[in-house]
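Progress report, Aim 2. The chain analyzed during this reporting quarter is listed below.
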Amino acid sequence: QECVPQCEVCVLSGPSHAEEVAREIPTTCLIASENEEVAKMVQKEFMNPKFRIYTSTDVIGVEIGAALKNVMALAAGMNDGLGFGDNSKAALMTRGIAEMKRLGIAMGGKAETFAGLSGIGDLIVTCTSMHSRNRRAGILLGQGKSLEETLAEVKMVVEGVNTVQAACHLAEKYHVDLPITQAINDVLFHGKDTQTAVLELMTREGKSE
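Predicted structure tokens for the chain:
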């Protein structure tokens, strides 16, 4: 928008690992544009029997979901690397979507976006699939490897590493509490032990959901 303000900007997001899209495994995504007619035009061009597209006008919400789900996937991988189970991962994903929604709304996004494909849908696939680079990186971190060792082993871009720093800056700017995101940032960049981070999250003051 800054570089080409005369153009209509669209965002494509959702649970869509490229490995499966390329194999024509049925996939459903979301196209977001502030101009609904443009979103519908892109929907028409992209949609086929193996790739279903929905539309949205909530560009900010879709972008925040697409970015922050990578942070939560790092956390989900750490959960697996630490040897935790389904209970902890389910809690992590649920409280993770709450953080994503909290920041998204503060930045002007819509709450309902985070219950859809670019929110909970993308979060589920990224936190549970071995196609996910962020989850794989989290597993290695949970097993005790350093960030440098982890990135060297994954050998691909792990988006959540940079995103977690940006998310913490945004949380400060918009006065939003993101405890899981902050914990991941502390593990990656401030030398906090993963077990300590988990303990601190679990022993925070009790509150209503």
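Residues 146 and 191 are 9 Å apart (CA to CA). The beta strands are 11-13, 27-32, 51-56. These observations will guide the mutagenesis work planned for the next reporting period.
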